[in-house]
Design goal:
With 138 residues, the chain is α/β, with parallel strands linked by helices. It contains 5 helices and 4 strands. 46% of the residues lie in helices and 15% in strands. The longest helix has 18 residues.
Length: 138
């Protein structure tokens, strides 16, 4: 099993777990226009090209339009995508909206309520500043 599969299994466990009551608070996603999502995706592409790095790490899938744009742009490429989210409900909403098949093979989902856990998982996957472009979703 490769590291992306392990990260996906970890994320699936986190997303299956509900702390407290079954009713989760509403998690309001941000909304970008197609033009705004495209502008951010082009900026990420420029940073990736200029740096020569091989990974894109997006912190936050609440802006589904940007995550969708990256999935479309980099599906089937040699660039690895890592989608990180601190709120399991946002990750659940995105996957429920788009389906598991929307996430390309070269992408990994990382979800935990702890920022330290996410950073530790990225480090375990050898995701470093030297080989990755890190981007905070708007």
């Amino acid at each position: 099993m490769n590291m992306k599969d392990l990260l996906s299994r970890y994320t699936a466990e986190i997303m299956d777990y509900n702390l407290g009551s079954a009713a989760q608070p509403e998690c309001t996603p941000c909304s970008l226009t197609g033009q705004e999502a495209s502008r951010h995706a082009h900026r990420i592409a420029r940073l990736l090209e200029e740096s020569g790095r091989e990974n894109i790490v997006l912190f936050g899938v609440g802006c589904a339009e940007l995550a969708d744009e990256l999935c479309s742009e980099y599906s089937g490429t040699r660039t690895n995508l890592y989608f990180c989210e601190l709120k399991p409900e946002r990750m659940r909403n995105w996957l429920a909206q788009k389906g598991e098949n929307h996430v390309p093979q070269n992408a990994a989902l990382i979800c935990d309520i702890s920022p330290r856990a996410i950073l530790a998982l990225l480090a375990a996957a050898n995701i470093r500043i030297e080989n990755s472009v890190f981007y905070l979703a708007p």
